[in-house]
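Mods, move this if it's the wrong board.
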Amino acid sequence: MFYPPINPVIWLIVTLLDIYSWIVLAAVIMSWLLAFNVVNYHNNIVRSVVRFLDVLTEPVFRQVRRFLPTLGGLDLSPIVVFIAIIFLQKLVVWLYFRFPF
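Not the wrong board. Structure tokens:
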């Protein structure tokens, strides 16, 4: 996302949220690749990537899943996390311009 020149702390927060959204997207794509047997989990590199993405995303997904109803095999937690990230980015920028420090 592009924002006008702002405080470096605000920029860092927005950038970290943006990076985390890419990590969530990578975790979702990797789970699809594993589910459709496009990649093999027994490959050491694939296993390392999956573990890395799980370590970064699973704690957040687990907290979101506590509030979502079970829908069988459908996991909506990444969508909720994406919406929360976008909301937090907009909120941080809005608060900065509303109440500059």
